Amino acid sequence: MSDKLNVNVIDHPLIQHKLTMMRQKDTGTKDFRELLEEIAMLMTYEITRDFPLKDIEIETPVSKCTAKVLAGKKVGVVPILRAGLGMLNGVVNMIPAARVGHVGMYRDPKTLKPVEYYCKLPGDVEERTLIVVDPMLATGGSASAALTLLKEKGATSLTLMCLVAAPEGIKVINEDHPDVPVYVAAVDEKLNEKGYIVPGLGDAGDRIFGTL
Ligand code: PRP
Ligand code: URA
């Protein structure tokens, strides 16, 4: 496998500006949460850019015409609990018909290994394109374990959407799940000795839920 990371960085100016606000340590819970939801909305706009369309016949108040609607697989959104919940509404605001699954995964603070504690998915998971959301891709352990679990449950079409990633985490996803496209707003420098992304934004779950 090459050293080149396979990642789509969505570096839209609005996203970068909002992310900078989120990174600042004095940004409080309310603003942090709102900014994350807004970024998730903007990222959804980008990652759905290639969704297939089909023609249908409609009638406007003025005339009949042929117009486009979404075709292809139905969508599911899967936040990785708990911090992934912070991105859920942003995605669902853009794709209101999406079904929502939940995967509970926390990172053991000593080993940094993911621990699964919850999984509830739509029944027709194999028929959907699943957008897996988690703001932080650090070692990649949590996201990789969530993707493996979803595949075991029958998922065949998966996309991973994170806010900030460390190169180490992207590499793990590329190696473990080469079939899964990875979208991020930023690739940061590295992980520190505690497995935190540098410069990152700290503990995303704690900042979203005010549990610092
Ligand atoms: C955070 C984050 C990811 C994980 C990333 O969750 O939301 O799920 O860490 O780290 P990794 O790539 O090294 O696995 P955390 O374990 O803090 O749980 P929380 O979402 O409940 O706060
Ligand atoms: N989880 C977070 O919330 N932040 C990090 O920097 C790494 C893992």
TrEMBL record:
Its cofactor is Mg(2+). Pathway: Pyrimidine metabolism; UMP biosynthesis via salvage pathway; UMP from uracil: step 1/1. 5-phospho-alpha-D-ribose 1-diphosphate binds at R82, R107, D134, P135, M136, L137, A138, T139, G140, G141, S142, D203. Residues 9-211 form the Phosphoribosyltransferase domain. Uracil binds at I197, G202, D203, A204. GO terms for cellular component: cytoplasm. Keywords: Allosteric enzyme, Glycosyltransferase, GTP-binding, Magnesium, Nucleotide-binding, Transferase. It catalyses: UMP + diphosphate = 5-phospho-alpha-D-ribose 1-diphosphate + uracil. Pfam families: UPRTase. GO terms for biological process: UMP salvage; uracil salvage. It is an enzyme of class 2 (transferase). Its EC number is 2.4.2.9. The keyword Protein biosynthesis does not apply. GO terms for molecular function: GTP binding; magnesium ion binding; uracil phosphoribosyltransferase activity. Allosterically activated by GTP. InterPro entries: PRTase-like (IPR029057), PRTase_dom (IPR000836), Upp_B (IPR034332), UPRT (IPR005765), UPRTase/APRTase (IPR050054). Binds 1 Mg(2+) ion per subunit. The magnesium is bound as Mg-PRPP. Belongs to the UPRTase family. Catalyzes the conversion of uracil and 5-phospho-alpha-D-ribose 1-diphosphate (PRPP) to UMP and diphosphate. This is Uracil phosphoribosyltransferase. It comes from Selenomonas ruminantium. The lineage of its organism: Bacteria, Bacillati, Bacillota, Negativicutes, Selenomonadales.
